[in-house]
């Protein structure tokens, strides 16, 4: 028996047509599934609107029946932010996937929220332009979800998070009205910044339907290297040296633990070790330039020679072909998949000031080992912007279920350290349901008061993605 009021499905079917709505069990099962398996959706209906107007009218119908709506993009999130309950409607934007315009004079792209990130990247590349947001799920995630979670990824050190890459938005509000904030303006000081209010709000304040994105010149040269470093502290000093040496030409700077590296090259087919040197810590660095005559290879050779000479690196290799570069990136990007071969994994998406990364790793590894003897730390991530995916694999002799039962206690230990270092418990994956209670625990009373006030002002009936963030 449906939990939805009589007649509401008929109204939505009339509005959206046969392609715009589904109650099929198999379709619902795929969209109710959550990436990490920590949450299970209960939605009995999913909407696939084809336009902003259909989104707006769907929201208005649901509002009239006091039904909550959960917006959903590519469903690649990690915090349960797109999971619906039994009396809630899922609204997926995958049919709204047009690249509306690419403007090579304003260096902007205007797109619908359901456009796949990689599709946007490829479309811009055809105009010799770059949309630099890049992450592991880019082949399936949707730009609306990227903006709703303020996604980060690999190039934040050079280009910033999703928030820095967006100029304007179109948003459907909780009552079904439409705020048209699409704009190519680089400067606009007319009151509160509404765009930034919706970016990172995880669909709790409005449903993003279109966006105007900031583009850059397509890189003409790329130079990529893999280094063995003595410690995370040396990696941070190497980063500072590299920024000065290259004139902030760094596009990515990734720290990888020895355990994470070993898992990738052991379990993932076709990957080869970049170095013969065995080390506890690795760095992947990439330089890019859009200037036609830049010699990044020579610049990188000079940087690495200097780093080895002063003891910040013990060994290094520079990719000499696209195949070699792809191998280096596959090692880094394959870590989450490879970690699954070592049993249960408890993950943390945290950030601290860049200078505090070594303290985080030292203190976090010591505290986790004291809490769960035999635990195997697997930290890696975007050390260039202080965002570490501080993962831990289960002890070899421990049952997976027993280990995963320690999730909350390990979270508390790591998040206490992160907070003490002036960091954030959510660097780029959002809050969703997973970290909602922890946000309330770690945030100041003043911040929580403001978050609740904003939610109550814009969505007083809490019909948009209820139970997420606050």
TrEMBL record:
Task: Give the record's family classification.
Answer: Belongs to the FAD-binding oxidoreductase/transferase type 4 family.
* Keyword terms of this UniProt record: FAD, Flavoprotein
Give the SUPFAM superfamilies listed for this entry: FAD-binding/transporter-associated domain-like, FAD-linked oxidases, C-terminal domain
Q: Please give the organism.
A: Thalassospira povalilytica
**Superkingdom of the source?**
Bacteria
Q: Which sequence ranges are marked TM in the entry?
A: none
- Record-given protein name: FAD-binding oxidoreductase
Cofactors needed by this protein, per the record, are: FAD
In terms of PROSITE patterns, this protein maps to: FAD_PCMH
């Amino acid at each position: 028996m449906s939990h939805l009021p009589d007649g509401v499905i008929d109204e939505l079917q009339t509005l959206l047509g046969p392609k715009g709505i589904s109650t099929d069990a198999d379709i619902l099962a795929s969209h109710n599934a959550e990436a990490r398996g920590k949450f299970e959706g209960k939605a009995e209906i999913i909407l696939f609107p084809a336009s902003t107007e259909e989104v707006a009218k769907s929201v208005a119908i649901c509002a009239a029946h006091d039904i909550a709506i959960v917006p959903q993009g590519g469903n690649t999130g990690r915090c349960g932010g797109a999971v619906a309950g039994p009396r809630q409607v899922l609204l997926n934007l995958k049919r709204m996937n047009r690249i509306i315009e690419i403007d090579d004079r304003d260096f902007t792209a205007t797109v619908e929220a359901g456009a796949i990130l990689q599709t946007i990247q490829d479309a811009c590349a055809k105009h010799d332009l770059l949309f630099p947001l890049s992450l592991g799920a880019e082949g399936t995630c949707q730009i609306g979800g990227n903006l709703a979670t303020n996604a980060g990824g690999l190039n934040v050190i050079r280009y910033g998070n999703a928030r820095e890459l967006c100029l304007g938005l179109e948003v459907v509000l909780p009552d079904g009205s439409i705020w048209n904030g699409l704009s190519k303006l680089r400067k606009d000081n007319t009151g509160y910044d509404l765009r930034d209010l919706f970016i990172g709000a995880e669909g709790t304040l409005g449903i993003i339907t279109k966006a105007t994105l900031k583009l850059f010149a397509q890189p003409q040269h790329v130079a990529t290297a893999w280094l063995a470093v003595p410690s995370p502290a040396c990696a941070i000093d190497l980063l500072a040296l590299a920024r000065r040496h290259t004139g902030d030409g760094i596009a990515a700077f990734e720290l990888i633990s020895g355990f994470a590296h070993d898992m990738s090259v052991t379990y993932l087919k076709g990957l080869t070790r970049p170095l013969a040197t065995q080390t506890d810590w690795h760095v992947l660095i990439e330089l890019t330039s859009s200037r036609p005559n830049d010699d990044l290879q020579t610049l990188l050779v000079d940087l690495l020679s200097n780093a080895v000479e002063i003891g910040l690196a013990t060994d290094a290799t520079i990719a000499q072909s696209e195949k070699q570069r792809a191998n280096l990136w596959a090692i880094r990007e394959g870590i989450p998949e490879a970690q699954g071969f070592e049993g249960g994994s408890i993950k943390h998406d945290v950030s601290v000031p860049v200078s505090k990364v070594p303290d985080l790793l030292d203190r976090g590894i010591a505290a986790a080992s004291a809490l769960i003897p035999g635990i195997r730390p697997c930290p890696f991530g975007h050390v260039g912007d202080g965002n570490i995916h501080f993962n831990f694999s289960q002890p070899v002799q421990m049952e997976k279920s027993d280990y995963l039962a320690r999730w909350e206690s390990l979270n508390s230990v790591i998040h206490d350290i992160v907070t003490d270092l002036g960091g954030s418990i959510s660097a780029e994956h959002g809050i969703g349901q997973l970290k909602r209670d922890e946000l309330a625990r770690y945030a100041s009373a003043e911040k929580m008061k403001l978050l609740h006030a904003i939610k109550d002002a814009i969505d007083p009936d809490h019909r948009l993605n209820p139970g997420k963030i606050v």
